[in-house]
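[Discussion] Sanity-checking designs against the backbone

I'm trying to build intuition for which residues belong where. Below is a structure token string of 344 positions. I'd appreciate it if someone posts a full sequence so I can compare it with mine line by line.
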């Protein structure tokens, strides 16, 4: 590994490598080589996540160290910092390239936050970074002939903008409109600060969006979320479906005689789906929950499935409208233009 190689290099060339890193806290400003920077050091016992950024490139770069390391490592080991003891609120050190002998001097002056255990969340570090977020707009993409869309994102939020012949497009686009309120912006910056103060990185929740189904009958949009700093339990999704003719929201659970609150299948539909089905994990705990999700299948019909938990045994059914016809509500048949002669 690069870090291992660099560690041996430091032992050979630096007397600082023989000691543990100096305890440094607070927000500092100065230079790395000829570049102006701002750095922050969170006060953490045993392991420290800190950060810095260049004034001409306002993107924080994580710095980490521990009691076992004689230096601070930049994120992805792009460089290593050796720092001396602060003297009269001035801090001197050396930046080293991970694989070559290139070095640059570091000189920092103390700003504030020495008593703050999460100095990287302070105004003095963040104010330059918190410019008004940009609305990111993708190129126009094609979902199907005559139906196109763009993906939009703003302050950690995502949505789509639809273009097509369907009567309710404008109404649905209004409901999909990005929320650019001051509250959304503040929440975005607050979360960045929280993770800078904890880990030296401006992490925010992940939010992706995609079109799951779109024809002359309905439009179905999926939102996929992953809470920052979490694993599997921090992931969830939600799907909203509207009539392409009226713009009224459609409840797919009601189509099959149930409701989203319970996520339980109608007994007759469940019996139909499970007839002849081989369950490879009948005793798994999520079988006792018996909870399903429902979404439209892009090829027609519905997908009825359990969330995946990694063993590959979640139950998944792709059912055509022809197969579902005996179980569908009158509303579903009307919206989808279904009759007794339906074939898909």
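Best answer:
Here's mine. Compare freely.
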């Amino acid at each position: 590994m690069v870090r291992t190689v660099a560690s041996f290099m430091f032992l050979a060339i630096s007397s600082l490598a023989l000691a543990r890193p100096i305890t440094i806290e607070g927000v500092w400003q100065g230079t790395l080589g000829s570049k102006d920077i701002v750095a922050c050091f969170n006060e953490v016992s045993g392991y420290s996540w800190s950060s810095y950024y260049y004034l001409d490139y306002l993107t924080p770069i994580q710095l980490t160290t521990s009691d076992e390391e004689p230096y601070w490592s930049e994120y992805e080991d792009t460089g290593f910092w050796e720092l001396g003891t602060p003297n009269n609120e001035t801090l001197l050190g050396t930046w080293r390239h991970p694989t070559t002998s290139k070095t640059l001097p570091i000189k920092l002056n103390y700003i504030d936050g020495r008593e703050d255990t999460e100095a990287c969340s302070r105004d003095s570090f963040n104010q330059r970074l918190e410019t008004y977020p940009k609305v990111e707009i993708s190129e126009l993409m094609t979902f199907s002939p005559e139906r196109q869309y763009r993906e939009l994102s703003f302050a950690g939020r995502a949505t789509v903008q639809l273009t097509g012949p369907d009567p309710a497009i404008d109404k649905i686009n209004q409901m999909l409109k990005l929320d650019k309120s001051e509250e959304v912006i503040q929440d975005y910056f607050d979360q960045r600060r929280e993770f800078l103060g904890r880990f030296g990185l401006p992490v925010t929740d992940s939010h992706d969006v995609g079109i799951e189904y779109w024809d002359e009958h309905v439009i179905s949009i999926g939102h996929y979320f992953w809470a920052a700093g979490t694993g599997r339990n921090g992931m969830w999704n939600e799907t909203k479906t509207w009539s392409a003719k009226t713009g009224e929201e459609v409840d797919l659970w009601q189509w099959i005689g149930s409701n989203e609150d319970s996520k339980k299948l109608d007994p007759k539909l469940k019996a139909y789906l499970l007839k002849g089905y081989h369950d490879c994990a009948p005793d798994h705990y999520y079988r006792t929950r018996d909870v399903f999700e429902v979404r439209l299948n892009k090829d027609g019909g519905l997908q009825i499935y359990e969330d995946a938990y990694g063993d590959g045994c979640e139950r998944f059914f792709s059912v055509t409208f022809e197969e579902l016809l005996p179980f569908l509500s009158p509303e579903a048949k009307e919206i989808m233009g279904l009759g007794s002669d339906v074939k898909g």
